[in-house]
Each structure stands twice: as C-alpha cells, then as structure tokens.
Amino acid sequence: MSLQPVARRAEEPEVDDFDFQDDPVPVIDHGQLAHGIRRVLLQLMQGSYLRADTHPKLWAELEAHEDVVRIRLADLYLDLVVDHESRLAFVRHLDVEQAIKVVRTHPLTLIETVLVLYLRRILLLRHSGSVRAFVGRDEIEDQLRSYRAADVSDKRGFDRRVEAAINKMKRYSVLLGVTGDDDRWEISPVLALVVGADQVAAITDELERLRSPRGDEA
Predict the structure, then answer these.
(1) pTM of this prediction?
(2) Which of 21, 81, 86, 119 has the least C-beta neighbours within 10 A?
(3) Pairing of the two strands 88-93 and 78-83
(4) What CATH number has the domain spanning 110-217?
(5) pLDDT of residue 40
(6) Which distant-in-sequence residues (6+ apart) come within 8 Å of 12 by Cβ?
C-alpha cells in the first residue's frame, strides 16, 4: 500500500503572495568607489594577476589609485604587490594574526613544483624586466625527465603528468601562448614575484634528494 499525492484541480491555481512585478525591490548602489577602481579590485581578486598589456585601462586605474586599492584589499586581509617595471600586479594573503584566507591557493604536485622552479630560474637569468623569457616544450620535458621516479616504468603516465603540469601553468597564466607556435610559451614575470627566494631554498634540497635514485641512503 502506498500513498499518492492528490492532484491539484485546474480551477485551483497556485497562489504566490510575493510577485516581483507587483512588489519590485529597488536596487541601490551603496558603493563609494568609482567603477574603474571597483573593476581593478575585482580583477585582482578573481584573476591570477593584472597585466598592463592585457588590461591597459585597469592598469591605468591601478596606477592612479594604488593607495586606495591597497587599503581596500588590506581590509580583506589581502596584500597588493605591484611591479611597475614588469607592469603587473597581484594579491596575496596578509600574514597577520586572525587573517582569513580569501584567495584560493592551488597545491602543486612534485612535477608541477619542479616546473615552477625551472621557469623561475629562467626568469632570473634575465637581468631586466624588459627582456621577455621564453621556453619550449622540449626544454621543459628535458628538465623534468631527471625527476622521473626510478620505479615508474610507464612512460606514458609520466608524459601525462608533464602535460598536466604544463596545462596548469597555462591555465593560471604562468605560461603565455606564443602566436604560431603551440609548443613554445612566454614565461610571465609574475612568477619571480610570487615564488620568493626563501620558498625556493626551502624545497630545493628536498627536490635534489628525490631526483637522486639513492637519495634516501645519503
């Protein structure tokens, strides 16, 4: 035995006490900032970073109102980092007590970590922010091959992890496409700012140990 719902008769239309057309809710803009500054804040919080070459109008707004943007971000526990030479900016979490994490972080695999350090090293070889750094797929594969685990015999599996690492760097605008060449990319200057020297020193020794097949015996 089961119970079935009683069908509503056609002459009993469903009543809705709240009608958006009859009772419109007024939309009021309580914001105090100009629209240009708001768009800068949104871009910094939603995107990986702000580049002058891709968002020239937003960059001009940032340069004109950098102090205001910095204060507003600090109210949200975010620190504004601006490199005027490379003409890019991004946000990171403020290292203060009781700070809430606002911007998402993206954990990296071993292969992705090695790739980040390799790309950063290429950037640092350029002594001027006006010098653009490029890297090819063959160079990346050669660099990552030495970190292939000794017990991994499936080359296709390793190649898939390398491809995934490259795609992740592309997705977060660390690797920028080059017109006419799908296997070569420009390395975004933001990488040298995001990954500091202290972070590099903290993980380089461990990576070197992992690269050596007999590293655990040292």
Answers:
(1) 0.67
(2) 21
(3) antiparallel
(4) 1.10.10
(5) 95
(6) none
